[in-house]
Each structure stands twice: as C-alpha cells, then as structure tokens.
Prior knowledge:
The complex is a heterodimer of chains A (464) and B (282).
Chain A: H1 16-19, H2 32-39, H3 49-53, H4 60-68, H5 72-80, H6 86-92, H7 114-128, E1 142-146, H8 150-161, E2 165-169, H9 178-181, H10 190-202, E3 206-208, H11 219-224, E4 229-232, E5 238-239, E6 252-254, H12 255-264, E7 281-285, H13 289-300, E8 305-309, H14 321-329, E9 333-335, E10 338-345, E11 351-364, E12 370-374, E13 380-383, E14 386-389, E15 393-394, H15 398-402, E16 428-430, H16 433-436, H17 441-462
Parallel strand pairs in A: 1-2, 1-4, 2-3, 4-16, 6-14, 7-8, 7-14, 8-9
Antiparallel strand pairs in A: 5-15, 10-11, 11-12, 11-13
Helix pairs in contact in A: 2-4, 2-7, 4-5, 5-7, 6-7, 8-17, 12-13
Chain B: E1 2-11, E2 14-20, H1 22-27, E3 33-37, E4 44-53, E5 58-64, H2 68-74, E6 81-82, E7 84-89, E8 100-106, H3 110-122, E9 126-133, H4 142-147, E10 151-156, H5 167-176, E11 183-187, H6 190-203, E12 207-210, E13 226-229, E14 232-235, H7 236-239, E15 242-244, H8 250-257, H9 261-269, H10 274-281
Helix pairs in contact in B: 5-6
Amino acid sequence: MANMIMTKTAMPEQQPDVRNKNFEEVALGYTEEMAVFEAQRCLHCKNRPCVNGCPVNVPIPEFIAHVANGEFEQAYNVLTSANSLPAICGRVCPQETQCESKCVRGIKGEPVAIGRLERFVADYHMAHSREKLQLTKSNGHKVAIVGAGPSGLTCAGDLAKAGYAVTVFEAFHTAGGVLMYGIPEFRLPKAIVQKEIDGLRALGVEIQTNMVIGKVLSVDELFEMGYEAVFIGTGAGLPNFMDIPGNGLSGVYSANEFLTRINLMKAYLDDYDTCIIRPKRVAVVGGGNVAMDAARSAKRLGAEDVYIIYRRSEEEMPARNEEIHHAREEGIEFCLLTNPVAILDDGTGKVGKIECVKMELGQPDDSGRRRPVEKKGSNFQMDVDCVVIAIGNSPNPLIRITTKGIEANKRGCLVVDESTMQTTRQGVYAGGDAVTGAATVILAMGAGRQAARSIDAYIQGRNE
Amino acid sequence: MFKIVEKAALNPSITKMVIDAPFIARKALPGQFIILRVDEHGERIPLTIADYDREKGTVTIIYQKVGKTTLLLDTLQQGEAILDFVGPLGKASELEGYKKAAVIGGGAGCAIAYPQAKALFNMGTHVDVIAGFRNKELIILEDEMKKVSQNLTVMTDDGSNDHKGFVTDALLANIQNGAGYDLVIAIGPIPMMRAVSNMTKEYGIKTIVSMNPIMIDGTGMCGGCRLTVNGEMKYACVDGPDFDGHQVDFDEAMKRLSIFKEQEQNAVRNPDCRLLRSANNG
C-alpha cells in the first residue's frame, strides 16, 4: 500500500543553534522505520523518469522497492550496481535538480526522498555488513588513474571490478579529493569517505599518495611502467582570486586554503598542528556550495558575524537550496546584489574592511543568468577581519603542461570526446572537473564510469 | 613512510637528514623543494631539497628548529620514518648561461644556496659564495661551500670568525673591486634578500631570490603562498620559489609570513603541546 502523504518524511537534524558550534554532521539520517515509510511513497512508475535524472542511472525504483520491504542489503546491491560511492552521493548530490526533479510525486507535493534513502541504505550497509568482497579474477592489464577524487575513484572501482590492476596516484597524503579537503565534516563525515575508499582498496585498487603526477612521474613514464591506459581525474583545484586591491593582506584566503586547513588538516581541533585564524567578522565572496561551506565553517570556528557577499540575487545562486537554507538557519547573513571592489588594510597588513558596491540585474548573459551591473556611487564599507574568496576554481595546469599531445580549451579544461572521454591522445582519458571545470561530485563519477567503459573497450580491442 | 637513513646536527639549531625517497631523488633539480608531514596529526611544511643522490635514491633536507614541527621532526632518529614526503615541487632554478655569479646564503638559507652554487660551479660558472651567520658557532656547510666555489667568504654579525659584518658588506666590496657579476643569487631571511636586491638593483645585476612563504599543499591548489611579483599575483609553489629579486614585493611577503605568528608561538609554549609530551616520553 503506497504512502500517499504529500511531503517527504522529515530527516532528523541537529538544532541550528547547537550545530553552528560544532563540526558534527547536521543531518542525522533516517531510522529503519522512517526509511521504510518514505520508500512506500514511491509509485514504481513504468517509465522511471527518476532514473533518467540520475547522471549514473541508478535503478532507483528497484532499490527503493527493497527498502520498502525492509530488504536493506538487497537494496544496497542494486544501488552499488550503478554507484560506487552511495554514502557520499546520498549526502552531497543536488537531488532537487537531478533524480528528485523528475519524480512523479513531485508534481503534486514533494518528490520521494531518493537521496535520503540512498544515504540510509549505504549507511545501513556500512554499519551491518560483514560480507567479504569477492575479488574479480585478474585480466592481466594495468591502468593508471591520476587523482583520487570522485571521478578517479569511480573509474578505479569499475575497472577493478572488471579485473584490471588499477593504481591511483594522488598528490595529497590522503585520497578523496574534494570529498576530503573541500566538503566539510558537517555535510560529509570524513570517516564515511574513508570507509568508501577502504571499500575500493578491498576491491584491489592500489592507492599511492604523495605522488604529484607531472612532477615525480610524467604520463609518458606511466606508459613506460606498463600501464596500458591513463585516466586523468585531477579536478579543478586552482583557486581564482578577484582582480581587486588587497588580495595579499593577511586574513584573505581562497576557499580552498580555508577549507583545506579545516577539513583535511583538521586545524579546528586542538591536537592537530595546522594553524587557522579564528576570525570575528568574516566576508565570504561567492554564491556556490563552496561559499556556503566556507561561511558555515567560519561560524563554527566562533565568528560572530559571517556575511555571504554575492553579486547576483538569491535566485541565481548556484548553491543547493538546502545549503542556503541551512546557512540562514545557522545565522549566516546574505549581502545579495553586492560586489567587492577592494579589501582594505587595518594599518598592520591585516584585513580591516571590505569595500563593496551595490549591483542591479541587467539583461541575461551567455550563461542565461541576468548580468549584474554596478550601481554607480553606491560604494560602502563593512568591518571584517577575514575575507574568504569562493568565486570558483580552474583546472590545475600541471598535467597539460607536462604531457605531450593533450589539448585543453581556453579555460584550461582538457578536451575529450564526449562519448568516450578520450583526450586528444590515444590511451589517455579524462573526466570530472578537469574536463568540465568545477561541477558536481555525481557528474565527476558519471564521467569516471564512462571512461572506465571506454578504457575497457580500448584495451580489449588492442588485445584482440 | 619515508625512512631517515642519516641524521646529523650541523650546529645547535640546524639538522641535516638524508631521506630514502627514490622517486623524488630521480627527478629532483636545484631550487626544488619537498613538503613533509611528520605524523598523522602533523602539519605540512615545505623544505628545500639540499642535495640528492639519484643512485642511492636519497634526498637531503636541512632544517632549522624554529617551531613545533621542526622540533617534532628533530625528535625522529636515524632508522625512523617520516609519514609523508612529497616532491619534487616548484620550478627548478634557471642557472644556465652565466659567467660569474655570487651565491649568497644567510643562516639556514645556506642549505638552499649550496645546491645552487654546486649546480652553477659544475656548469663552469665562476662562483663566489658569500655566507652569513650570527656567530661562528652557527656556521654550517663551510667545507661543502668551499668545494663548489672559487671564493668563499663567511661573515658573522658579531665578528667571531674575524669577518664582522653582513653579507651585503662582502657583496658590496666584491662589486666595488670589479667582480663583474652577471648573476646574484640570494637566499635567506627576507630582510637579507631585500637588502641584497636593493644593492644589486643599483648596479643593474640580475638577482634571483628564493622565496619562503607559508604553504600547505605545495601544488597550486590553495594560493596560501601567493606573492606579488612585478605587480602580478604569483604562487611560489608552482611559479617559484625562485623570483627576480628586483620585482618581489618583500614588504607584503614579510607581513604574510607573520599571519600565524601567535598560534605558532603558542604551539611551542603550550604545556599540553603533544611535542613536549612526546619529547618527555622519548
């Protein structure tokens, strides 16, 4: 019997005035009863529009049917047939623009909470499964993956399942990419990311950390070492700054630096050695998820006032609605239609103020969003002691400048054949943010999956 | 894990370690650096590659005990291991095509100046090395620097080695005596690099400095190490660490180095500091 309640089963959360003082996960997850009850809202449509909304085409109604029957492990098996990292996707995917946006229940009322159910199933499996993984029989072929972020890990997992000996080369001391250094603990606990990575290791994936490909080894050397194909999943980790005065002042951070110190280096904990300043008044410039993460992190470090400064209106904000909502609840203030023009010195080389102008929206630009236009003479100053710049990242140029035959576009993104993910060089594939520029975790995973299929076809074709 | 195959104190505050890191040893070039993390709770710190042996697969680092992490590193002994050690990072120094160079090292900066002097010397460049220390007890790498230079001048601030004065005093004397340098390399504390750059600018001598800003990843993904060079933002970890000394904004670099001064001092003084705990246990 379907559950015809119009709204999603609510997920328990930490209270805003409690959680904005700790780094623990905000959303607490469904209980078994809640999951079964929510799963019963799925109507099991014949044409399964939700599946088309998912970049990796998870068989959504099938896994939800198992949840509705209390068969959580079966649900997990269905889920992981299409998605290697479900505990992560269930938490960080923008479901409102993907699977859930296509759900028939969303026409009148709220869609089925697919993301929350995915998360429940993955967490249930991690907590309860004692099953030993069956290693796939080796097919004798070696593939190298550059970068241990979502695209590289997905590609590695799929190839390992197909029998390849896979080595992932990661520049940092920890695998995970943005899942480890970028997305904060309160949205994505690092222990969960670690468990997903350990799961890949159990599949036979070898991960070598502290290996900066392009410096310590070149792509050509990887081929010389016997790897038959290389996948580049190096992301878009090069932070952009604004072309305004004051970028060099103490207290101005890229969001990457601010979040890396907090998430990867755990600078907010006393028994870790990495420093972080604990600012009082923080301006975060930008309107994406990274800006929300930085602002909410600043609040948790004890800042009294945290401002999001964004040059368009809320409607154009690229951040997930849920993140904007959570940020507001936690006391983050939004300065919309506002753009910084200078960061000002307090007289000692530290940030003292940020000077902004008011903006208004003009005609739509190339991106289809209405272009912000400066209101002349509307300059004003705000007292701040820290500015975090979260206006986007570009791909790191290291691979493309050290590898022959790999073309990039003018934004520095690697050029690939969209159906195969092959770069302009045979045997070298790429995917994720390194190709698209900063996008989402699930799109990166979808690209990794597609590349794994192409790499398999390429290597099998060569050996026929 | 990266094993420490040799450890030696060069003076009371400066230590040399030879680390087993064959991949890095194969690729390292003068001017490049590594980032290390001592243990699971440690921070990432950059250190210049002071030497390397491609056949033995080792990389030499020389560090000064200035704060918590370098003190913690110094608790490790030969045979023990460093958790993370990544490199070679940064651009190699561009040293080709010079006839006569002065390579200037200040204090621990000599550990970075030494491989550059060695590379120049081996290319056939005439090399004068000028090294500066606070007093004669702190002098390091004297024999090594002598071997890779035509002339070595060691200055002490207090004159305890009978050569009283700053490195700039020795440099000025050489220039005025008609040394005819077409390159000066200056590596050490920022005030020293700034003083050398100001002096060589007057004489129009090309000057390279090796910048030492705060770093985390060392691969260009955070911008923590950014500097202003000739009015443009540069990342020392990927665009440097070598830059034209006549174009670097030293004042800004100096201020940026002190961002975490308070926390760094607290980290060492704090009686609960795990370094002190480990020192007491060890």
